[in-house]
Write a structure and sequence with these properties.
Largest sheet: 9 strands, mixed
Low-confidence stretches: none
Radius of gyration: 21 Å
Strand order of the largest sheet: 7-6-5-8-4-1-2-3-9
Number of strands: 14
Structural class: alpha/beta
Number of helices: 9
Helix content: 10-25%
Number of domains: 2
CATH architecture of the largest domain: 3-Layer(aba) Sandwich
CATH topology of the largest domain: Rossmann fold
CATH class of the largest domain: Alpha Beta
Distance between the termini: 61 Å
Mean pLDDT: 89
Shape: elongated
Strand content: 25-35%
Length: 309
């Protein structure tokens, strides 16, 4: 028999595949008051890497159809006011089905969640809207926005079981394909190459994509680049674009205007390539290369594509 989780203000639901946490798992657990329910193949192993949780529940099971999973999780979460999922592919797939199973509204694309609602991005990420819920609700939290501090110490962990519905789900999973480096959404990327106005035209932006493939990095840009149509607007980093939080950010010809830097989150390492040694991006960089950005990029690609001896 399944037993419901205790009554709580919030719990993060983290879908695990092969013991790997999805992007945004730590942020969602932190936003949910350091409480998380991990479900999937390798949930026990993944729990040890969820540093922001002080209380965790694990449901070890092969992942079924998301509709079946939602029906199984709903009784466990009936006494939780706010059910929060990272806006990872599995989180975005499960959240609407879970909202239906719990008979609650869904606040999707949140950048912050509070007791009675959430702040969400709308209109292509260009407008921040505050939404209120009249009662319990389900929300998805965008990765790379809130950040998360380690909770410290070993979390209190409980194993739970679920009753799986007999009825088949409405979808069939044929397989799971990991995105290529250039296809990874910017908020989920651990490495990002940034294109600024100083990089030049389309040929240089094409070289940046080649460097991204070789380095396992996603490509982003400033508004000056996307306004020229050199990259689509969903690749724009900044307060009017997407927010990133990578391990490594390599900025080519990026001056570091406040609107762009406001979308950088807290990258662990920053490298700036710019002819201006005093520009804000070089000033904040761990490594500043004062040189022509297109020339440095061309040499980087040449070396990355050169056969290894």
């Amino acid at each position: 028999m399944s037993a419901a989780l205790p009554a709580r203000d919030a719990v993060a639901v983290v879908v695990v595949r092969g013991g790997e946490l999805p992007p945004g798992a730590d942020e969602s657990a932190a936003e949910a008051g350091a409480a998380a329910l991990l479900v999937g193949d390798g949930a026990e192993a993944a729990r040890a890497r969820l540093g922001s949780a002080r209380t965790a529940w694990t449901l070890e099971a092969p992942l079924p159809d998301p509709g079946v999973l939602a029906e199984a999780l709903a009784p466990l979460l009936a006494r939780v006011h706010t059910v929060l999922l990272p806006a990872s592919p599995d989180g975005r797939d499960l959240a609407p089905r879970l909202a239906v199973a719990l008979d609650r509204p869904l606040l999707a694309g949140a950048v912050a969640v509070f007791g009675q609602g959430a702040e969400v991005l709308r209109h292509g990420g260009r407008q921040l809207v505050e939404l209120a819920a009249a009662g319990p609700f389900v929300a998805t939290l965008l990765p790379g926005v809130r950040g998360a501090e380690p909770a410290g110490g070993e979390p209190v962990t409980h194993r739970v079981e679920a009753e799986w519905p007999d009825a088949p789900g409405g979808t069939e999973t044929l397989g799971t394909v990991a995105p290529g480096p250039g296809d990874t959404p910017l908020p989920e990327a651990s490495r990002v190459l940034g294109a600024g106005a100083g990089l030049g035209g389309g040929a240089a932006v094409g070289l940046l994509a080649a460097a991204g493939r070789a380095l396992g990095a996603s490509v982003g840009a400033t508004r000056a680049v996307t306004d020229q149509g050199l990259l689509p607007h969903d690749r724009q980093i900044g307060t009017t674009g997407v927010v990133v939080d990578p391990e490594l950010y390599l900025a080519f010809g990026v001056s570091g205007a406040a609107q762009h830097v406001g979308g950088l989150g807290n990258p662990r390492h920053v490298v700036s390539v710019n002819t201006d040694p005093h520009c804000p991006m070089t000033a904040m960089a761990d490594l500043g290369i004062v040189a022509d950005a297109p020339a440095v990029l061309a040499e980087l690609v040449r070396r990355l594509e050169a056969p290894h001896e």
